[in-house]
Amino acid sequence: MKPLQVGLLGMGTVGCGTWTVLKRNEEEITRRAGRPIRITWIATRTLERAHQATRGAKGIHLTTDPEEVIGRPDVDIVVELIGGIEPAKSYVLRAIANGKHVVTANKALLARHGNEIFAAAQKTGVMVAFEAAVAGGIPIIKALREGLTANRIEWIAGIINGTSNFILSEMRATGAPFATVLAEAQARGYAEADPTFDVEGIDAAHKLTIMSAIAFGVPMQLDKVYTEGITRLTREDLRYAEELGYRIKLLGITRRASVAGSANSEGIELRVHPTLVPAKRLIANVEGAMNAVLVKGDAVGATLYYGPGAGAEPTASAVIADLVDVTRMHTADPEHRVPHLAFQPDQLSNIPFLPMGEVRTSYYLRMRVLDRPGVLADITRILADREISIDAMIQKEPPEGEDRTDIILLTHQSIERQIVDAIAKIESLPTVNGKVVRIRMEELN
Ligand code: NDP
Ligand code: HSE
To answer: What is the C-alpha to C-alpha distance for residues 299 and 327, in angstroms, rounded to an integer?
Structure first.
């Protein structure tokens, strides 16, 4: 059968990985897809890396102009691996307008402009596939969109940024400084072009936006994600968490929840933040650049998806899986394809997203206090007045010659706005020094 012809935009970490894996496993991939999949055009900014990777392979054309690839009638699928919003967005929309299927790993682009891109694809009858955009090599999009399609999804909680998880794991295991570990993650090709996206939780917010849309059948709304990264975490808190039987992980969490005070109305939580997770949970033991996504469905119960969340070949694995899917469905009637966001496009719902103040979860609170009678009583009274109940507490002996010490409290589930209010009140006590550290906590059982 005639090969399906692919135009690749961007020959960086993932672009080179895709080329290598497609070449190495060409024979098996062809047997699976039913026809050969050939990269015939590569457009990238600097040709040197592309020349090195392709080493004069026959039938391959290199250019610095993506428009040249997108405009070619003989290119069937455009693979966008440039990253960022522009010019990636314009290339993707023009490829769609030209009737090309698109495969992309670009979660930033989809989280921001996915609704527009999928609508355009729907209109033209082409596929936009994006398995690599969430959790690298883990087939989580396939699992959510197809494998779990019988379920009403209740919640998803995932380690979905490899760079942050690598940093947290290294800081905990070796005590290495943040900046050193981040530089190592960059050298290994895990980090985004702008690593702020990784460490401030933005990349995880992009991925969570995509998963939430697929899980609950809602349009993508990146602006609704509460986002907090790992840059303010201290080794002290990692250590205290450990003492209490927890690990701190950067989690993306999305959940159906009832709106406080209204048993019948439902909202969706959408949040990325450092989270204490019981050390005995499998997800708490996911280390390095590995990702893991826990999905709770009403029929299946909890399922866990684990694997490499970043890197050249793991991500290429997902890109090529999409290429095979597109190849298999290329000639199918668009009506018979799996909808981009799992639900039929005219069946998306408008369940509201819950503001962070309404979210109900548990908390780790650390405060530095004067070590004298009555201090703890004042703090617990403030919490009790707001119906916040304490689950566990540790108080450290003050270091020799000092009159101040750390108190760490774990609370039962409380409403976020009550905790925010209590923290403000605690910080105003003359016996409490500086800011109260607040980290959210999830049992995930
Ligand atoms: P890289 O920065 O390594 O590669 C990007 C490539 O695009 C480079 O070759 C770059 O050229 C090229 N490029 C940039 N701008 C243009 C342009 N205007 N025209 C043509 N080519 C251009 O990024 P990654 O491979 O790491 O990431 C690619 C995408 O995959 C991103 O969306 C990223 O978020 C996503 N992703 C990455 C993962 C990873 O582990 N790295 C995992 C999952 C998703 P030059 O060589 O000159 O810089
Ligand atoms: N920068 C991302 C991460 C790449 O570290 O997870 C994979 O999406």
So the answer is: 32
Q: What's the pLDDT at 262?
A: 67
Mean pLDDT (whole number) for 31-47: 97
Q: Identify the domain containing residue 197 by its residue range.
A: 141-308
pLDDT digits (tens, 9 = 90+) for 175-203: 899 999 999 999 998 999 999 999 999 99
CA distance linking residue 72 with residue 75, whole number of Å? 6
Question: Active-site residue numbers?
Answer: 207
- Work out the pLDDT band at 263, boundaries 50, 70, 90: low
Work out the angle at residue 384's Cα, subtended by the Cα atoms of residues 392 and 431, and round it to the nearest 5 degrees: 80
Query: Would you say 49 and 122 are in contact if contact means Cβ atoms under 8 Å apart?
Result: no
Ligand at minimal distance from the CA of 182 is 2
Ligand 2 center–CA 429 separation, angstroms: 42
Instruction: With 0.90 as the threshold, say if the pTM is over it.
Output: yes
Tabulate helix, strand, coil % of the chain (nearest 5).
40, 25, 35
Q: Looking at the CA of 319, which ligand is closest?
A: 1
Domain membership of residue 323 (yes or no) is no
| CA 128 to each of CA 124, 300, 302: distance values in angstroms, whole numbers, following the listed order | 11, 28, 29
The finding on whether 189 has its CB within 6 A of some atom of ligand 1 is: yes
Q: What is the three-state SS of 228-263?
A: CCCCCCCHHHHHHHHHCCEEEEEEEEEEEEECCCCC
> Could you tell me which residues are beta bridge partners of residue 307?
291
> What CATH number did the domain enclosing 376 receive?
3.30.70.260
Domain membership flag for residue 337: no
Q: What is the mean pLDDT of residues 219-236?
A: 96
DSSP 191: S
